[in-house]
Amino acid sequence: MFLGVTSRSARGMSAAVALLAIGAVGCADAVDSAKKVARQRSVFSLTPGDCYNPNGAATDTEAFSVEIVPCGEAHKGEVVGEFTIEGESEYPGDDGASKIAEKRCPAESLKFISDTWAVPEGVGLFLYYPTADSWKTGDRSVSCTYAKESGTFSGSLRNASLNADQRTYLKGANAVYEALWNNQPEKDQIEDDLDGYKKQAEAVSAALNSHVAGLKDVQQPETVKLRAQLDETAEAWKDAASAGTLDDFYVAYDLGFTGIDPKRTVAARKELKLATTVPAAPPPHPSHAPLARIRRDS
């Protein structure tokens, strides 16, 4: 799983100039080029559900426009979420803006893609965020997208046809990973921020308890087994949150992470007719690889 971050730029080539430029090529090529020109859209106007092809490489660090295509066609990416940066009187800098985007986009994407396990292999999270120049023009928006660094995929990533049991399971499971992601301690080492890790454990325990409560009406056998296991796991995270010593925390923390091992959910997922291939790094997760950043320049 990777995260790309691109800046947005207001620079661009007019459609008229582009059409004149293709006048010397063959008719078929001209039609294809004209179609691409007509599909160009500023990165400032991206909305969730837009499928697109970047005009450069997927990993370019700056972009001003993309080609919007029907999701049924092969494409490199799809916009899966957006939000506005708030509470900042001045531009927080490239690092600050990208960190805000990194923290929010995994959760925002889960509102669009209920089951991240169903995301095609090689597709990862990319972010379009403001730069200092675009900030001066009033740009505060971040676009969260899933894109493929190499190759393309077809179809929308939106999970539109889920039944009640599937929605219940995914809502609870996603909330658990959100609790992990949104409560990451500042320090990498537990010894350096035990209180931060205990706070995270408390959030995960609460999310697991809600997940367990939500699954009580799902009576399929493997899901019932999973519910019992998650109930025990919630207790382990609760013990970690209230641990009196570092050693006690480690014991409970290890049990807690073992209990949310994605492999333990495969049988229930199969029973619920959900994707069963464990992603390399199910997002959002503290061990998630760095996200790709794309600045939106003006």
Could you explain how this protein is built, in words?
The chain is α/β, with parallel strands linked by helices and 298 residues long. The chain is globular, with a radius of gyration of 22 Å. Strands 1, 2, 3, 4, 5, 6, 7, 8 and 9 form a nine-stranded mixed beta sheet that branches. It is built from nine helices and nine strands. Helices cover 41% and strands 16% of the residues. Helix 3 (93-110) packs antiparallel against helix 5 (164-182), helix 5 packs antiparallel against helix 6 and helix 6 runs antiparallel to helix 7 (221-241).
So what's the overall shape?
Answer: globular
- Listing every helix as H and every strand as E from the N terminus to the C terminus, the arrangement reads EHHEEEEEHEHEHHHHHE
Global mean pLDDT: 83
Distance between the termini: 29 Å
Write down the Rg.
22 Å
The tally of helices reads: 9
Q: What portion of residues is helical?
A: 40-55%
Total beta-strand segments: 9
Alpha-beta classification: alpha/beta
Strand content: 15-25%
The biggest sheet, with number of strands, parallel, antiparallel or mixed sense and barrel status, is:
9 strands, mixed
Q: pLDDT under 50 segments (min length 5)?
A: 9-25, 282-293
